[in-house]
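Hey, quick one: can you model this chain's 3D structure?
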Amino acid sequence: MALESNERPNRPIAKFESMLKTDDVYFFDSEDFEDIIHHYLNNGKISLAKKAIKISLKQHPDSIELKLLDVEVMVFENNFEAAEQLLDKLQLLDSSNEEIYIQRANIFSKKDNHQGAIQLLNKALELSDNTFDIHSLLGMEYLFMDDFKKARENFMKCVSFDEQDYSSLYNVIYCFEFLEDYEGAILYLNDYLDRNPYCEVAWHQLGKQYYAEKMYKEALAAFDFAIISDDNFIGAYFEKGKVLEKLGKYKEAIENYETTIKIEDPTSHAFLRIGKCYEKLEDYDTAKYYYYQTVHEDPLLDKGWLAITRFYMNRKNYNKALYYINKALNIDGESPIYWKKCAKINTELKNYDQADFAYKQAVDLGNYELETWLNWSTIAVHNNDIPSALQILAQGKQFYPDSPEINYKIPGLYLLEKDLINARITLIDALKQNFNAFSIFKEQFPQYSETQWTQEIVNSVKKKM
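Sure thing. Here's the predicted structure for all 465 residues.
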């Protein structure tokens, strides 16, 4: 027999969980069931939510709201066909229920039909008196479509409904940042802070916008206000430390990073920034200590291993630098930056085969910088493989067709190969393209720059010009 709800004074959730442990069946009104189901859904307890839905529909078989929660779980589990069938039935019963359109929009969104989802959400807007959640969903759909302006408009509406909706506030600023409209973000946040002067979140975001615009004094003031609003706001101390670094105030920056460690458990990122500050202060022993603390705190933080690598490279201790760049590569072997660093270290150690391999990895992973092509070709020369060096420069020329460094290096390599025909053709091309950059050829190939053969080509091109 079902027991009336007033026979048990416990809260609905506690009462429901008590019921699950016994053979008794307690009666709940439909609103209590909605609260119970929402609680489980919000806490990711889907199985308990499904149990609550099953029992609730036995007690309230005609409740559209409970059936819509059943639909929500179906959509969550990607059971779209069953969800759509139930929505069809519900729409016949109540065609003006905005939640039906919202759930249909969720299905469309999961199927990557974001334009269709937006149309359904706009229909829900027409039917709803409480549009806050719908604008939030619209904002997300526009984000999926990379329409940041419309996404921003909808998230702004969410903030206007509830100025404590920090999730929407973050999304507004994210849209400004993606559009690189930092001035717009600054104006928006200042306007928001006029109404909410003690909002540490907004001050923090404002400081980040000023930082992006290199307005460091204004950024510093914004982070100070964030700290005044909440003196345990770790993010504000950390960002303030970064600003102080930019201003060359390394000791003050260290104080702020140390504050973050005092407030909460130490983080590898704080140790890393402290180490960099000490290195700038030329306190190398302390810098090294904090770099090692960084990787001790988080052995998987490749930036920590990279910092140690750079530390030893700056001291020309390339053997240790090689050891630590390999640590970074073991964590992230897909980083072209790390492979390029590895190539430079191996070059210093005259490990030319390893340097060649590292440059190839860097290029394969998308590093197409001019310096990479030039250095890689030099490594090929060290390996007595001039054809490969020429091939490397030919690839580089595709990215930098007007580069005098490449264009003058190619004829020099042909001369090393004693290929006078191609050397002549490419040297003439280089001179015609940038005659004044001939000094590059002189510097790299002094053994050829003053020969009669070269001077005749230079003088011939000069006369024609």
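One thing worth noting: The chain has a mean pLDDT of 91.
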